[in-house]
């Protein structure tokens, strides 16, 4: 019965797909599990080695008489459950030295090494796991979509209003087929408009204007491009560190068109 209940809660882990952040965290834990297992194997090896070594010594401490008893005692030491029994180790210097070596190698070295590994791996894997979590969420939605009636699917598509054109800004009508997301004006400052605008015909056969595609090589343009690169690098660094704060909010709100996670580029 206990195994069945445990398997039931394992199946409930699919609920984490509802949140991208929680799903990414679960995937990071899954990929970091091998490092934890390796650390536990190393800790088990140290316990067995020290248990055999202590059993070969001549002492009268009841907590380390025989390999099985020594194994349990070293396990309690590794888990911090040995209590105040360390006082009895003072009577035997050699036994005390073995226990101190075990504490330094297992509790201090192995555990801190595991923490360092997990800390380093978490920062590297989290960015990749966010994308993988989104793919898992899309896969779950695709599997559940056939179970939804066509009537509800049509109502959902009509409610999203993909046929309406979206505003890039106030009074600036853009393209259709996306979902509008509002943001604070200082959330993503843009020095120059990334949307190239040209007057005249919109026919696909019309030649693309060539004069606006020339790259300015003057010192002002070079300084502006360098400033944009520095701002982009600073934003990426702040995003990696988790963001210690948000910039002040402006008086209004700009709108940007988001279709998935794509953005309009130069």
What are the key terms here?
mainly alpha; single chain; 266 residues
Short description:
This protein has about 270 residues and is mainly α. The chain has helices at about 1-10, 20-55, 65-80, 95-145, 150-160, 220-240; strands spanning about 165-170, 170-175, 180-185, 255-260.
Description:
The chain is mostly helical. Helices cover 54% and strands 8% of the residues. The protein is built from 6 helices and 4 strands. The chain has helices at 2-11, 20-55, 67-79, 93-144, 150-160, 219-240, and strands at 165-169, 172-176, 179-183, 254-258. The chain has a two-stranded antiparallel sheet with strand order 1-2. The protein has a two-stranded antiparallel sheet with strand order 3-4. A hairpin with a 2-residue loop joins strand 1 and strand 2 (172-176). The longest helix is centred in the middle third of the chain and has 52 residues, at 93-144. Mean pLDDT is 76; it is low at 245-266.
């Amino acid at each position: 019965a206990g195994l069945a209940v445990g398997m039931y809660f394992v199946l409930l882990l699919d609920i984490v797909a509802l949140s991208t952040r929680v799903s990414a965290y679960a995937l990071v834990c899954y990929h970091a599990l091998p490092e934890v297992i390796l650390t536990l194997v190393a800790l088990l090896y140290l316990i067995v080695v020290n248990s055999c070594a202590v059993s070969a010594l001549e002492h009268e401490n009841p907590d380390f008489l025989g390999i099985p008893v020594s194994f349990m005692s070293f396990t309690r030491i590794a888990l911090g459950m040995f209590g105040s029994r360390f006082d009895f180790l003072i009577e035997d210097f050699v036994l005390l030295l073995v226990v101190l070596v075990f504490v330094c190698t297992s509790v201090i070295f192995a555990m801190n090494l595991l923490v360092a590994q997990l800390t380093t791996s978490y920062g590297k894997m989290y960015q990749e796991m966010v994308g993988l979590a989104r793919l898992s969420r899309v896969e779950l939605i695709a599997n559940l979509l056939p179970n939804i009636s066509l009537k509800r699917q049509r109502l959902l598509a009509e409610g999203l209003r993909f046929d309406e054109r979206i505003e890039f800004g106030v009074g600036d009508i853009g393209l259709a087929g996306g979902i509008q997301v509002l943001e604070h004006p200082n959330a993503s400052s843009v020095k120059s408009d990334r949307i190239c605008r040209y007057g005249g015909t919109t026919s696909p056969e019309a030649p693309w204007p060539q004069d606006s595609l020339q790259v300015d090589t003057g010192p002002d343009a070079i300084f502006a491009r360098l400033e944009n690169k520095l701002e982009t690098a600073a934003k990426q660094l702040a995003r990696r560190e988790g963001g210690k704060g948000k910039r002040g909010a402006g008086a209004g709100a700009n709108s940007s068109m988001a279709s998935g996670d794509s953005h309009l580029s130069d």
